[in-house]
Automatic annotation (TrEMBL):
Species of provenance: Terribacillus saccharophilus
TM annotation in the entry: 21-44, 64-84, 104-129, 144-165, 177-197, 233-256, 276-294, 300-322, 334-352
Organism placement in taxonomy: Bacteria, Bacillati, Bacillota, Bacilli, Bacillales
Protein name (record): ABC-2 type transport system permease protein
Keywords: Membrane, Transmembrane, Transmembrane helix
Coiled-coil stretches: none
């Protein structure tokens, strides 16, 4: 009978196990220490058991789990295919009577098993601990399955990308570097493009696009959000990454079969890929250079110089890597081609710049318009406090008001990089159109020297919609509030606590009436004398409100409850004010009651202006200064200005 030759080459498998078996053992031990062992240590210690995390297994050293998941697969791929980077080893391996396709499948499969086995074994250990000990009350079977699936998927995807890059390069160092560049490139290039568009186009909503899309462009950044921040998995994105992994393996197969053996020790072994590498490096360094020069100078002329210098530097670096020499000037024609492409791109941006910046939809096309910041619009709970709601304008008059402000911002000299020490606003506007499309713009502008812009801004901030969306008292969960802490911002001691439900309800209603009745703000940073902390039954939800003596309804409720005098502070209670300049180099003591009252009425929370003063308040009967605020130089009384100028 004819003998059959097995398609499984045991010698190759044994060789691969000798190469990477130690790495598999170390990976298993690392995961074991991070999860099962740490959980056991915490559970068996009564002191630490109280603080054990419940639920997701990614709550245990998530940073380390993520780092291992994006580094260990790269080590596996680099070690298994390092023979492609040495000519003698490559010639020897490919002289064996084994097809290249079989070599690829054997190496990839062996590495895949050794890579995933530590994860699976630790998953089994975690499940056994859950099933046979009391640890099961801290995580369940679905938590283990979720941990397994996420880690296996990320590891396999990075491993597949590493194998693909191994077919592209002939250098060991480039294999590692290019793997991370390749995996991060989609997100990295989008970040560079978006930052440069913000530089070139006024109103470009950088954070909106970064939050909405960039994180999803790379598996490293996408799974970082899942592992570190417990973001939800999108099955659409998982499908995209899975399809990309399959294509990468098929691509690696095709490249390996067609790879020429003499191409070892070259950065990019396929000639048709070299222009992609060359122009990709040039383009990225060019954008980095332009962005750096713009951030340093704010000048468009310097920005253009930065683009030119960056493109030249990037071209030289790419050519030096490809040719392994700094004698790269013979290929100047390639740079001229790129320069022509660059000119065409900038001309295109220049042609669309005006139409982009002045693209404001007709009111009749707008269903509603959002006015606020990116975090509130995206409902990012990590950045917005409870009780703050997205602000939408739906009435025609309100939409026109927002558009008038936007047009004034565009026409004014205020830039999107306004000095933060001025009265600066950072505004995000999204038009949601009736046809389902959205138009987003982001601006930073100063109100300091533009009375018209300031009037429009305060008109919006004085609207009832704005107040209701941006004041927590309008959106509190009354059922969750069991008490209020009332305190003065000037008194060093704590104020009274209100637990009577009727008084709590009356205070909430009074605060709403006072906020609704206040006119457009003259200075939003004006000092608020009193603060109310809302104590809730939910420890992760925190509300507070600030007010002063002009809140008549609120003061009336406190007076009726006999609480107002416990916290009330008036200028007559102040022994003196201590004025310190911005750098705390000069100090002035103010004791005149007339000056104290004047300054007291013009205090603000904080000023970043260099000519402003810090105001320390010393109350009668107190040994130390109880509070510190700020005052603008222009708001000081003339008598104090004269003393400061002496």
């Amino acid at each position: 009978m004819p003998s059959k030759t097995s398609s499984i080459k045991k010698q190759i498998i044994r060789h691969d196990i000798r190469l990477t078996g130690w790495l598999s053992v170390l990976y298993f031990l690392a995961l074991f220490v991070i999860l099962p062992l740490q959980i056991l240590f915490q559970y068996t210690n009564p002191e630490t058991r109280r603080y054990m995390e419940k639920g997701s297994l990614f709550l245990y050293l998530p940073e380390l789990q993520w780092i291992l998941s994006i580094t260990v697969p790269v080590f596996f791929g680099v070690i298994l295919f390092r023979y492609l980077h040495k000519k003698q080893t490559s010639d020897f391996v490919h002289s064996m009577p084994i097809k290249r396709s079989a070599l690829l499948h054997h190496h990839a499969a062996t590495g895949l098993i050794l890579l995933t086995l530590p994860i699976i074994l630790n998953g089994i250990i975690l499940y056994v601990l859950k099933a046979f000990t009391g640890i099961g009350s801290y995580y369940n079977g679905m938590n283990v399955l979720y941990w397994l699936c996420v880690l296996l998927f990320l590891n396999v995807l990075i491993y597949t990308a590493t194998n693909f890059i191994g077919m592209v390069t002939g250098l060991l160092s480039m294999h590692v570097v290019l793997t991370y560049i390749f995996v991060l490139f989609p997100a990295g290039i989008m970040i560079l493009i978006f930052f440069n568009l913000r530089t070139l186009l006024t109103g470009f909503p950088l954070d909106y696009y970064l939050d909405a899309a960039v994180v999803k462009f790379s598996p490293i950044s996408y799974f970082m959000g899942i592992i570190l921040s417990q973001h939800r998995i999108s099955w659409f994105m998982i499908s995209i990454f899975a399809a990309a992994g399959i294509l990468l393996y098929l691509g690696a197969y095709w490249l390996y079969v067609h790879r020429k053996l003499e191409y070892t020790s070259q950065a990019i072994v396929y000639p048709f890929m070299q222009p992609v590498f060359r122009f990709g490096v040039t383009f990225c360094v060019m954008m980095t250079g332009g962005l750096y020069f713009h951030e340093m100078t704010g000048s468009m002329s310097w920005t253009v110089i930065g683009y030119l210098a960056g493109s030249l530097l990037g071209f030289i670096i790419a050519e030096a890597i490809l040719k392994k020499t700094w004698r790269v000037y013979s290929n100047y024609k390639s740079y001229l081609i790129f320069a022509g492409f660059l000119v065409a791109v900038f001309l295109s941006v220049y042609l669309v710049k005006e139409s982009y910046e002045n693209n404001i939809p007709e009111v009749s096309e707008v269903e509603k318009v959002y006015f606020g910041d990116e975090f509130t619009y995206n409902r990012d709970e990590d950045y917005i406090p409870p009780g703050i709601e997205p602000l939408y304008f739906t009435e025609e008059n309100d939409i026109e008001m927002v558009q008038r402000l936007q047009k004034e911002v565009i026409e004014s000299s205020s830039s999107q990089f306004a000095d933060s020490s001025d009265d600066t606003r950072y505004t995000f506007i999204v038009y949601e159109l009736k046809n389902g499309k959205k138009l987003a713009r982001s601006y930073a502008y100063s109100l300091e020297e533009n009375p018209k812009l300031k009037k429009l801004q305060y008109e919006i901030e004085g609207s009832s919609q704005y107040k209701h969306a941006n004041n927590q008292v309008f959106n509190v969960d009354r059922d969750a509030i069991y008490a209020l802490d009332l305190q003065s911002n000037l008194l060093p001691s704590d104020g009274p606590t209100i637990s009577d439900q009727n008084t709590i309800d009356a205070l909430l209603d009074a605060l709403k009436k006072d906020i609704d009745s206040t006119h457009t703000q003259i200075n939003p940073d004006k000092m608020q004398t009193y603060t109310i902390d809302f104590l809730t039954k939910k420890p992760d939800i925190y509300y507070y409100a600030s007010f002063d003596d002009s809140y008549e309804n609120t003061v009336k409720v406190l007076e009726d409850a006999g609480l107002y005098e416990d916290i009330r502070t008036v200028p007559e209670d102040i022994a003196y004010l201590q004025l310190d300049d911005y750098n705390y180099e000069n100090t002035l003591k103010v004791e005149d009651q007339k000056d104290i009252k004047y300054i007291f009425d013009h205090l603000i929370e904080y000023s970043g202006k260099q000519d402003s003063y810090y105001v320390g308040i010393k109350l009668d009967g107190e040994s130390d200064i109880s509070a510190e605020f700020s005052i603008e130089y222009d708001d000081l009384p003339e008598s104090i200005k004269n003393q400061l100028e002496e």
